[in-house]
Every structure is written in structure tokens, then in C-alpha cells.
Amino acid sequence: IPQEFTVALPLLQQIRAAGFEAYFVGGSVRDTILGLPIHDVDIATSAYPAEIKAIFERTVDTGIEHGTVMVLDHGEGYEITTFRTESGYQDFRRPDKVEFVRSLKEDLKRRDLTINALALAPDGTVIDMFSGLDDLKNKTIRAVGDPTERFFEDALRMMRTVRFASQLDFKIEPKTLQAIKANAHLLEKIAVERIQVEWIKLLLGKNVVQGLDAFLETELFKYCPQFATREQALRKIAKLPQLKLVDELECWALLAYVFELTPKQVRSFLKAWKTSNDISMEVQNVLSILEQATPDLDPLVCYHAKERATKAASHLLDILQLPLTGAKLLQTYTALPIKDKAQLALNGKDLIQTLGLKPGPGLGKILNTLEQKVVLGELANDKAVLLAQAEKLSKELN
Ligand code: ATP
Ligand code: MG
Q: Which residue of 62, 222, 253, 278 is 20 to 30 Å from 313, comparing CA positions?
């Protein structure tokens, strides 16, 4: 039993002592049985939110309308959610109404996949009402109950299915796969932000090729932003022999590269996917390296790209087998005499005080020239050297 459970166990026991049921549920149970590390432990209970709040001293209403109360304990927050059923689903996404119930079985029934519908009791027994354990053993992703019905209730579940096929390297059970093929268009109803989360997890998974194949075969891709006309490019990604991405930046940069996007298109593409704003610049920096990938790459390109983008580019160079190795790029970056303008041995203030220069574009120009020469190794990053050079440059400018 992982330590994340052991430390949360007293919470379950407290709920039980108050006369209610409480279990660990969801991804943490699945991952523990698979021997994988777990991140967040989810707790499900027969107690209603008000009853949970009466049991614990420190609670936060994080999702009270869904029945979730966060309990604070030894500096950790634990999400405790009341057993619930969902009904309605008029709009193929969230249910019209959430109903709290006292039965674990009802709660497990509304979960998406059999491997996600397991509960772990405080005594270590696993409650398995939909053969989730068999599916874990046989590496199978299967919807709980009738897949078509379940995807009608919430179309995001289709993306979650292909995401888990990649993340866990599991096969999708034929009826479940068939139901996705028949209903892929329902994905249009789902908020892009939620699709994005699953898409990135798919790309970061253990068997990306399998996840991508399912994503393409079921035509889910047609209902994702700016993917509909790019099937061939997406297939190209699935064929990359060394495909192994480590973070979100690498995912978006790889897509932008294979889609051959211009900087302007990168911005609109990422906007359509509702990514965070700051990733757009980083993606463009990665692309600037990939587009100039030759063994004699201009060091200024990776200097301007900065560390994070250079690292991402180094992985992508190898994945795309471009004519510059990732190792060589990192070597170039590591060898840069300075990594940032702030490391220049001379600044604008020095120029004004020592050489009596006036603030303005001329001064900026001199500093930029010095910076560039230092990065390229043409000048030592030494104050006296740089001052002498600056003096020369300012005379030339006048
Ligand atoms: P991860 O390891 O990525 O967190 P997870 O399975 O824990 O995977 P969560 O989004 O944290 O995914 O959800 C926790 C649990 O809630 C799931 O295991 C599943 O039982 C249930 N669940 C999540 N999303 C859905 C959904 N769209 N439909 C039905 N049940 C869901
Ligand atoms: Mg989770």
C-alpha cells in the first residue's frame, strides 16, 4: 500500500467512526494496482458534504455543488466526494443534475471506464463491480455499461478512452472503440480546455502510437481545433520511430513543426486550443532552432531561444532526425559565454557614466552589438574590453 494512502487512512477511519462509508476511488486505485506512482488520492463517501464538514475541523468548499469538500490534514488537501449519480446530460457534457446517494455501487456506475471504477476499502479490499481488475490484468480499456449511452452522457469520455490507451499502453475493447467511431462528432460539444488536457496526456503517454492510431481511426481528430484537414501530418507523427515527448511544450512545438505553421499561424493554432499564453513564444523559439537545424547552427539562435526552448528543441531534433543532433545543440548552448543580457559585463548605466553617452537608440544599438559579439565569442565578456569596444563603436556612430 503506497504511502499516499497510508497517510490518508486516518481520514477514512474518522468518516467510518462517524457511521459512514468511505473508500479510495479513481485513478489512484487503478495506478496502485498497476504498480504505477500515484499523484492525487480521491476519496468517495456515503456522507453528505454537510456531514463531512461536521466531522473535520478544517475544510474548504472546493466543489460543493458536485459534492466535493476538501479536507485539510497535516498540510495536505484531500478531496472527499459524496457518492452521487448523474442524470440529464441533455447537452452531451455535464449532467443536468447531480444527486447524492448513499450507495457506492451507484457511484461506481457513473464512472467512465471499468479500470476507473474500482474502490479500495480501508482494510485493503478492492471493490470491483464491473470487472475492472480483469480489464487491468488484460490491459483493456472498456466503458462501464453501454458505451454508446456513456458517450452520449459525456462525450469527453471518448477522448479519455484514447488517452488511456496511450498512457497505459492498453487496448480499447472493440465495442467501446466502435461506439467512439459512431459518435466521434459529439466531441464538438465539449469545451476545448477539457479536450486539451486529454490530448496532451495522450501525447505524453507510454504508447503514443497506439493512442494516436485510435484517435485517427475513430475520427476524433476531426472534431479537434485545426486538426480536421491535417490527418496526413498527424499520421506522420504516429510514424516517427523515436517518438517520446516529455512535456507540453514539446507536444505543441512538434505539432507546429509538422503542420509547417508560420509564427502567426502558431499563435492562432495555440489560441484555438486555448493553451496558456506564454507557451506561444516558447514554441516559436523551438521552431526557430528546428528550422535552422544544421551542424553549424548560429549560436545566436539558441541564445535567443533560451534554455527551456533549447532543451525541447534538442529532444525534437532527435525525434525528427534532423541534420543536427540534440547533443550537439545542447553542447552549443552550454558553450555560450553568456546565457542572458543580464550576464553581460557591461550595461547601459556603465556606458552613460563612464563614456558619457546619452540614453537612447544609439546606446541600445551599441549594447546589442556588444552582446552579439560576446555570444559569438568575438569579444571577451570583460568590462575593460567591452568599454574599449563601446568607445570605438560610439565614435563610428557619430
Ligand atoms: P489521472 O491519473 O490522469 O488523474 P484519473 O482516472 O484519476 O486519471 P481524473 O480526471 O482525476 O482521472 O478523475 C478521477 C476519477 O473520476 C476517474 O478515475 C473516474 O472514475 C472519474 N471520472 C473522471 N472523469 C470522468 C468522466 N468524464 N466521466 C465519468 N467518470 C469520470
Ligand atoms: Mg486523478
A: 222
Q: Which atom of ligand 1 has the smallest separation from the CA of 167?
A: 3
Query: CA 300 to CA 306: how far, in whole Å?
Result: 10
Q: Among all ligands shown, which has an atom nearest to the Cα of 25?
A: 1
What is the best residue among 111, 141, 146, 203 to mutate for testing ligand 1's pocket, by most ligand atoms within 8 Å of CB? 111
145 pocket-lining for ligand 1 (C-beta < 6 Å): no
Least distant ligand from the CA of 153? 1
Residue 2's pLDDT band (cuts 50, 70, 90): confident
Same domain, 64 and 117: yes
For ligand 1, atom 11, the nearest C-alpha belongs to 27
Question: Quick one: cell of 352?
Answer: 552613460
Instruction: Give the chain's domain count.
Output: 4
CA 137 to chain centre: 27
Q: Which domain holds residue 7?
A: 1-134
- Any idea what DSSP says for residue 187? G
DSSP state of 143: B
Task: For residues 117 and 25, state if they share a domain.
Answer: yes
Asked if residue 320 and residue 254 are part of one domain, the reply reads yes
Confidence of residue 153 (pLDDT cuts 50, 70, 90): very high
Separation between Cα atoms, residue 48 and residue 82, nearest integer Å: 6
